[in-house]
Amino acid sequence: MRLDLFPSRTLTLYLARLFITRIIAVLIMLVLVLQMLDLLGESGAILAKPGNGEAQLWTYVTLRVPQLMARFLPYSVLLATLLTFWPLNQNSEVVSMRAAGLSAHQVLAPLLLSALVVALISFAFNERVVTRSTATLKAWQAAEYGAVPSAGGGRANVYLRDGDNILMASSLTGRGSEMVMTKVTWYRRDPTTMVQGQIRSPRATFAAPGWKMENAVEFDVKGAKVSQLGTVVVAPNVTPGQVAISKVDPDAENIFELTESIAAMKAAGRRTSELEGKWWHKISGPLSAVLMPLLGSVAAFGLARSGQLLIRGVIGMALGFLYFVVDNAAIAIGNFGGYPPLIAAWTPFFLFALVGETVLVRTEE
Known about the structure:
The protein is elongated and about 90 Å long. The chain folds into two domains: 9-144 and 273-364, no CATH class; 155-247, no CATH class. The protein is an alpha+beta fold. The chain has ten helices and six strands; from the N terminus they run ααααββββββαααααα. Strands 1-2-3-4-5-6 form a six-stranded antiparallel beta sheet. The chain crosses the membrane at residues 12-34, 107-125, 309-326, 338-361.
């Protein structure tokens, strides 16, 4: 016996098409508005750098748009759910479906399947595009919108200890022995942590051992004098492996790179619960799009002439936004160690899945 989870092929394609087109339309609208507002705030800093112009503004847009798309796609799915169900209910199309013998779950099934496809595409887009654009944008911002970093593995504001001394870099690109640091400062300190001097350089590369600083300038604290050193090697105890685990940005690494970073930090005895929570959230985050049709389905059922359609729409929107609040709170609590990473990432998803299913069952009754 075949279990009919979906309505007819024609109705399934009709509902899926309505839903997908509204997701795309809402996402484009949100991204355009938010990108214009964001560009208004950042354009001054970008154009303040000598040599920057319209091309750099467009570069910023191309790096920022993927972040906005990834962040607001679940919101777009929620709003698209309401914009799909509201007219269907208002025009009594849902009533016709129910009168034809379809259950509430069958009416909702095409939207859930479409949302699952959107979630899978979102996951691939996040891991392939968003992580790279995030790494490049952060490294570019750390360079104060100078030359756009082109190498992979970009990081910003790197801080490393070499015994009592400190090595700092504004940005870092590349991996392993190919790492390149920019705007580098090496602080020479005594055992009492008092700074005796500092060496600044626009660029440093791995010298195996140590880091070769080019066009270095030294400032001696005691003598209060500045000296041109040319090329000098510092921090012989700092290795590329230490740099790799010094500052891991989960938003700038895909799930495979983050897995390697977590393993390296565990081997070094570092705390990894925050990174593990982010690892799980790379999966549960995009999958939250599947919840949105379930949470917004309250707007689909109930008679339009009862006068409660607006209230149902508000309830659906409130449930969706409440999920994002709880999800962010759970991740924050997990970062502080209050929840295990797995619980922090998945509890809101399963909790609101139960809430949405309960609302749908009660509505169907």
